[in-house]
Amino acid sequence: MDSPDFVADENGGGRLTGPRLYLLLRMDRRLLTAIVLAIVFGVLVGLSQLGLPALRTIVAVNNGTFWIFSAFIGSIITGTSIVVTINQLVLSQELGAVGDQRDRMQDAMDFRRDLEENLEEDVTPPEPAAFLYELVDGIQHEANDFESTMTEGSDHSDELTEKVRDYVDDIAGNAETVKGNLENAQFGTFDVIWNALNFNYSRKIYDARKLRADHREELSDDANEEIDDMVTLLKFFGPAREHFKTLYFQWELINLSRALLYVAVPALTVTAIMLMYVNASVLPGQTLGVDNLVWLTSGGFAVGISPFVIFIVYILRIATVAKRTLAMGPFILRQSERDEDLG
Questions:
Q1: How many CA atoms lie within 13 A of 96 on its CB side?
Q2: What is the residue range of 157's domain?
Q3: Where are the transmembrane segments (predicted)?
Q4: Which of 147, 154, 273, 283 could serve as a FRET partner for 314 with CA atoms 20 to 30 Å apart?
């Protein structure tokens, strides 16, 4: 059985742990952008101290700033326009005739009613975090009911008893962790999707079906019914997670478009200043042992590439989440989950 404190890699490649996990998924995108730009700025300034040809000489002889910054004008305008256009095409899927919107509304309500019927609740919460909380809590209760059913009635083999205990403990530990993190999660942040990824429902479906297949003769009708109810709830989790993931992707694409629009004009302005007013005679002298022209040019370069860096850090997280949720349902793509039962 899976440990409840696994990382969010249910359907993707290798495991994400430590700094790599934090960098790709958890770190605030604005902070990551600032760090990347600071590293670029630091590298450019640091290279000036390694005995390379002086930047002021390069600018005087080869008009270096022109060749560096002239390409930024077209790339910033073209790149920003393309990204915003692509995002708008993606978001245009939300548009449609009233009949299409009504069908979507009906499908959503049918999904809620089906889940409420299985959870035996009158109404499920409207907030994504609370909705997932109730669903995970329902799965945990079904697992507890399954264990209670197995402890009653006829005796079972030690192997089956141990498997049931491990399975229920796995669900309980995983569910408690996810529920605790969902209590204060707000949609729009990454927390909701992160906790949805951290509930490995695919493996739980497989383990339940494998347990029944291996011990079909020992399971009572009540135990089989409990397994069916548990698998049914687990199958609700997949579409719910995919729906909230889609909404989150759209949310992030909107944030990406806004960030690019905010930074594009300042980046173009700085690039224009570097082209129009900076030459080999600007800001003579040094600061902290570094030529002032190096400070200015390095800063201008960092500002010029900021739209590209923003695009990278946002798409990096979206692509990582998409890779780790490629398969919906009882499919586990990562090699680390393969064992003798899956060979």
A1: 11
A2: 18-95+126-337
A3: 31-52, 64-86, 259-278, 293-316
A4: 273
Query: Could you tell me if residue 283 is left (phi over 0), alpha (psi between -120 and 50 degrees) or otherwise beta?
Result: left
Closest CA to 246 of 143, 318, 174: 318
Cα angle value 201/203/209 (rounded, 5°): 105
Q: State the total domains in the chain.
A: 1
Q: In angstroms, rounded to a whole number, what is the distance separating the alpha carbons of residues 156 and 218?
A: 7
CA atoms within 13 A on the CB side of 93: 9
Residue 325 — φ and ψ, nearest 5°?
-135, 35
pTM: 0.80
Q: Is residue 7 part of a domain?
A: no
| pLDDT lower than 50: segments of the chain | 1-15, 336-343
Residue 307's nearest CA partner among 271, 264, 257 is: 264
pLDDT of residue 85: 82
